[in-house]
Amino acid sequence: MYDVIVVGTRVAGSPLAMLLARQGHRVLAVDRASFPSDTPSTHYIHQAGLGFLKSWGLLDAVAAGCPPIRHLNFTYTDIAIPGMADPSADGIDAVYCPRRTVLDKILVDAAGESGAEVIEGFTVTGLLRDGDSVAGIRGRVGDGPEQEFRAKLVVGADGSNSIVAKEVGAATYEGSPAACFIYYSYYEGVDWGMHHRTGFGEQQFASWPTNDDLALVAVMRKRDRFRDFRTDPDAGVQEIVDQIDPEIGARLRETGKRVEPFRPMLYPDNYRRQSFGPGWALVGDAGYHKDPFTGWGITDAFKYSQLLADLVHESLSGARPFAETMPEYQRERDAQSASTYELTQSISELTLTPYYDSVFRAASMSEHYSKKFFGLIAGLYPPDKFFGEAELTALYEEVNFPVADRHVVNTGVSA
Fold first, then answer.
1. Where in the chain is the domain with CATH 3.30.9.100?
2. 359-398 per-position pLDDT tens digit
3. pTM to 2 decimals?
4. CATH 3.50.50.60 residue window(s) in the chain
């Protein structure tokens, strides 16, 4: 009998298993993959996410062999905001974009080294029940015999197609359609640094250095253009980069060499699912997903795995029952992620609303507010301050922003 079974051991499941095992709880973590294993991903870890890795003692391992990024180039049509957030309170002055073959292996190993039992190559075929409560899992390794494991709590950390979510019928209570598709691959001869560039015509390219002296280059367009794009993605990537930044397009053509197959991604819709019930919980993309445009998937997985681990520990140690801690987990996750969720849904459409156009355009004219912008992106500056009425009024006055272009300041952006 385990205290907790975690289904899925990537960027949400492994930290959860690790943290609970470090608290002395008996944890089983299973995944149908065997590691190292790849998965579609933006790779990007914000400073806030790196703070969790540092507190867990894993940052040095993740940073080894992965270039630090200390300057970001963010553009949206004709709005350009270059720079970087100030160092975080724990001294992190860079961001990293590790390959998932590297990052996920580090996390899985950390879970095992912390005392969690890890079974790789394990496919969950169903859940065990005790009345109305989930009581465990059944499944098998490869073609082996079916096995059953029981626990006080089963956590689905198994992504958007979570079998745990399906088995318990976790309802979606908030959502919106996905806007775009993404194609990405890895390139040699690309030394542009970090770029996140959205151009006219509803298209975007991004690039950042990763492991093995390679750069990830990704492009994004609206989903209705996916069929045409996939007929010749190399030409499509070149076309998008050329149109957004002809100079970088020329460099891609002259020195860039794609060294791996493309990874096409049609991401699922944005959603929040019911993420707890009798004997079960969901974390990571299993319970909450948003467009990858803002690169917050990994950081949010770390953040809410830590939150869930803290609350599960309270219940397992007898401080409070699951009937209190699990609703608190979902409320806190939703409240803390509200502004990021809203912002992501808006700007991932590849067109800015008049409100966001005004804010970002004015921010690009102010050196200190540009710092705040990158602090917002990094998870270090509170959204209620960045989008606060008093703060934006002061910004508009500082840069002498035309009154006619100042759209409504107070739009209800959540803190």
1. 180-265
2. 999 999 999 999 999 998 888 988 888 999 999 999 999 9
3. 0.94
4. 2-38+100-174+269-343
Amino acid at 194: M
Secondary structure (DSSP) of 261-298 = --EEE-PPPEEEE--EETTEEE-GGGTEE--GGG--HH
Tell me how many degrees the CA angle 159-160-163 measures, rounded to the nearest 5: 75
Q: Which CATH superfamily is domain 2-38+100-174+269-343 in?
A: FAD/NAD(P)-binding domain (3.50.50.60)
| Interatomic CA distance for residues 142 and 128, integer angstroms | 20
Which tokens belong to 56? 């867990």
Instruction: Report d(CA 340, CA 334) in Å as an integer.
Output: 10
Calpha distance 40→263 (Å, rounded): 7
What CATH architecture does domain 180-265 belong to? 2-Layer Sandwich (3.30)
**Which contacts (CB < 8 Å, 24+ apart) does range 250-253 have?**
251/190, 251/192, 252/187, 252/190, 252/217
DSSP helix/strand/coil, 247 = helix
Burial class (CB in 10 A: 0-12, 13-18, 19+), 269: middle
* Residues 8, 31 contacting (CB under 8 angstroms): yes
pLDDT at 411 over 50: no
Taking only the tens place, the pLDDT of each residue in 33-63 is 999 999 999 999 999 999 999 999 999 999 9
